[in-house]
Amino acid sequence: MTRRVGVLISGRGSNLAALLAAAKAPDYPARIALVLSNRPDAGGLGIAAEAGIPAETVDHRRFGPDRAAHEVALDAKLRAAGIELVCLAGYMRRLTPFLVRAWAGRMLNIHPSLLPAFPGLDTHARALQAGVCLHGCTVHLVSEAVDEGAILGQAAVPVLPGDTEASLAKRVLAQEHLLYPAVLRVVASGAAGQAAAGDASLLNVLAAETLPRQVLRERPALQ
Ligand code: GRF
Question: What is the whole-number distance in angstroms between the Cα of residue 16 and the centre of ligand 1?
Fold first, then answer.
C-alpha cells in the first residue's frame, strides 16, 4: 500500500526534492501528494510544480498572531488531500499543540544535528563551536517539545579540520537527502504504528565517511 504524504516547507526544498526522487521508485511505499508552504517565495514550491505535485501557500501572515488558526487551515488542506503522513522539510514555524496532536505519530521532521545535541537553530555553527568530532542529522517524530520527539533515524558525518559552517552544512545536507527517504520508507511501509507507540530508534543510519555508507538496523517486531 502506498501512503499519501504531505510535505510542509518554508524555503529551498532540497529535502523535498530528495523525497520526490525517492518516491519515483516503483516499490517506494509513499508518494508525495501535497506540498504546503507558509511562505509564497519558498523555492520548494517551484520544485513541486516541476514535479507536477499539487502545491499551495498558506501564508502565516494572513493569520496575524493566531498560530492555531494558521494550522487549522493547513490541517484542513492535508485532510482534504487524504494525507496520511506529514513530513516537515525545512518548515520554519514552531507548531502549536493543535497540529502536533492532530498528527501525533504521523508527523516527521528532519533536524540538522545528532539530537539530542543541538536542538534549535544554527546547529552547524554550534557544533563547530563545541568542538564535536561527529555531527549529522536526525529524523524524529514531532512532539510538543521542539526537536524532542522519538528519534527514528540518524546519519553521522565527521567534523574535519578546517571545516566552516558552510562545508559542514554541505556534508550534513548530503546525508539528510539519504536519511529522510530511508526513514520515510520504513515508516510508510508499516512501522508507523510502532512509531506512534513512542518507540525510539526504528532504525539507525550511520553514514560517517569512515564507516560503511549506510547501515540500516531495523528493530525486531514488537511482541
Ligand atoms: C535542512 O537542513 C533541514 O534539516 C532543516 O532545514 C533545512 C531545510 O533545507 N530542518 P531544505 O529546504 O530541505 O533544502
Answer: 9
